[in-house]
Amino acid sequence: MNVLILGLGQYPKGSGIAAALFFAKQGHEVCVTDLKTAKELKDNVKTLKKFKNVRFTLGKHDVKDVRWADLIVRNPRVRKDSREMKEAIKLGKPMESDLSLFFKACPCPIVGVTGTRGKSTTTKMIHEILWHSKKWREVWLGGNILVSPLMFLHQVTVKDLVVLEMSSFQLEATGEAGVSPQIAVWTNLMRDHLNAYPSMAEYAEAKAQIFRHQQTNDVVFFPNTPDFNQYAKEAPGNVVRVKQGKFKLAIPGDHNQMNASFAAAVVAQLGVKASVIKKTLASFKGLENRQEVIAKKNGIIFVNDTTATTPDAAMAALDVFRIPRKKKQDMSGNYVQLIFGGADKELEFEKIAIELGKRKDVAAYVLPGTAHAKIKKQFDKYKVCYMDVKDLKDAFKQMKPYLQSGDVVLLSPGCASFGLFKNEFDRGEQFKKLVKAYGK
To answer: CA torsion 125→126→127→131, rounded to 10°?
Structure first.
């Protein structure tokens, strides 16, 4: 076949590179195309250049490649309204994604986890509990959280179990392919990605693909809240409604109690002993880049929460990190020194502005980006204590005179990372470097 990989991506184990390797190793003719240049994608390009049956169209897309293809494997971020996708749809080209290919070939059951917030933590909790239970030959972890499952497909057996984090973009493709995981988990639904979806209804429907194509013996886990009642009625298989429990956890916050509640409900359904569940959850240390305490210097706690790309996520972090104060002063402490702002995803900032306006323990440093004007408007309206900064380095420079023992420096931007950073993980890495250099 002629296989077009539409969107290679930079992540070395992501969907594009995984699909390209999958077909290249089988001897198919592969064309890889991406809007990024060969220099920007150098690691993945270097890997694929070893194959004589792989060619590249980089720095642009060419509709000739779409016409050439017998099969198109599209990156989850390639939207249907792009010129290439419109041409592919017009020509009736077969389309897959790395996850839809994996679902069709996987010999063992799949646990799929989605949600606006908490899906990575819930996915990892589930994986750790299942792994410690030793009920399966191997428990694989992949999807949006770590690695494309195509990377380990050749190693999966019928005696295994696979746990996948699934984003709304990934679920669009599995939905189009008519596949859903046998065990589906939908943690919550909040405003997000409205720069990619015309409405909350369309965003929600993308998430709903996690259970839409289940069989009657499959099971889906929903929150026990009214906004999921209709989805529970529409589920083709079994439904479990999850309430927040109370667990002994090493990571703080009500949101993590809810994540643990989902994880416990899922693994209990799979026959894991309660003692294993409790022990594993109690020792779970959390994930990198998610409310991650990375250092304590001179009594100042530095927290990397770069994956908080929505205002709701930033508010969850602010609920965890609080400093009692009797009255509001200026930018000086003791304060949670919040680094906020970035690229707009068509979200609203009024709710967090109201919260920050009421609180007496937060000073905000607002990064530049397409969301800046909206943030500034709401922060001014609700009299939030804040200042504008040029970048992360400038934020550290501006807050340094005010920092004192007892403060928390919290990177929880509430926005996407595009513009100043390659991605949210690059943002987190830059933050870590600045923390490492602090005080030297």
So the answer is: 100
